[in-house]
Specification:
- The chain is α+β, with helices and mostly antiparallel strands.
- It has one domain: Sandwich (Jelly Rolls).
- It is about 20% helix and about 25% strand.
- It is built from 5 helices and 13 strands.
- It is globular.
């Protein structure tokens, strides 16, 4: 009888979201999410255990990863994404594990308690989400996000961003700008500091972006994880009887005069 090779055990992941992990964040931010201006949001510092965040930053896919798709349009430039289209092939297991945890039951419970939105549905396909990398000179114009998952007929309601940028210098730019519906002026700036999580509620007037080109050194880039969450129209009506779904649309791009690359 032929000898059988001994199976090699898989190394178990060392991090999972647990209720205790989110307790402090809920205590600090749970009461203020819906009241935040210019639209509901929260900024959660020290979102992950520091060693996990540091490890994620160190194994984040380099710009040379073969499955990145580069976007260079008028509205956004020098931005890399779409690794989800290849199933995150070649991405470090820790990154893939934390992405899965963002879609897991404990994170969903936390987000529902933080935001008051009940019936959140994750997107395991990470359409337009997953990993984002902006290179020096890159920008993302102000916009309101696409509003529906057309494959599952769900309404997009929430965005989670986790920044992985050790030693980020504010002089490099890349601050996430939040603008009100009337586009009168930027209402809130969020620096992409390492291990900072931004949770934003989505609607057709939730304008945000980083319109000024990045000024980071050539060997640096703006790194983030992104996860989007959805609700059924029935779940939205259960909490808001007046809710009516709007027709599906892509991103709504805007450029107030004097913002980003448009001279005053």
């Amino acid at each position: 009888m032929a000898a059988h090779a001994r199976p090699v055990p898989h190394r178990a992941p060392g991090f999972f979201f647990e209720p205790a992990h989110f307790a402090g964040q809920l205590a600090r931010h749970g009461a203020g999410f819906q009241a935040a201006a210019p639209f509901p949001h929260a900024v959660l510092d020290d979102f992950l255990p520091r060693d996990v965040a540091d490890a994620l930053a160190s194994v984040f896919p380099a710009p040379t990863h073969p499955h990145w798709k580069r976007v260079d349009h008028d509205e956004q430039a020098a931005r890399l994404g779409h690794l989800q289209r290849s199933g995150f092939e070649g991405v470090h297991p820790l990154v893939r594990h934390v992405l899965a945890e963002l879609n897991g039951a404990e994170c969903l419970r936390f987000l529902e308690r933080l935001t008051g939105l009940r019936g959140l549905v994750p997107d395991p396909a990470f359409r337009a989400a997953g990993l984002h990398l902006t290179l020096p000179g890159g920008h993302l114009d102000l916009h309101a996000d696409f509003n529906r998952d057309r494959f599952r007929d769900l309404s997009r309601v929430l965005t989670v961003l986790v920044y992985l940028n050790p030693g980020w210098d504010d002089a490099w730019g890349g601050q996430l700008e939040l603008w009100p519906a009337d586009l009168s002026a930027c209402a809130f700036l969020i620096a992409p500091q390492h291990n900072r999580c931004v949770v934003m509620q989505n609607d057709d007037a939730g304008y945000h972006g980083h319109p000024a080109p990045l000024r980071c050194p050539p060997d640096r880039a703006r790194q983030s994880l992104a996860a989007y969450y959805y609700m059924s129209d029935a779940a939205r009506r259960a909490s808001d009887p007046a809710y009516e779904p709007s027709p599906a649309h892509g991103a709504i791009w805007v450029r107030p005069r004097g913002v980003g690359r448009d001279p005053a």
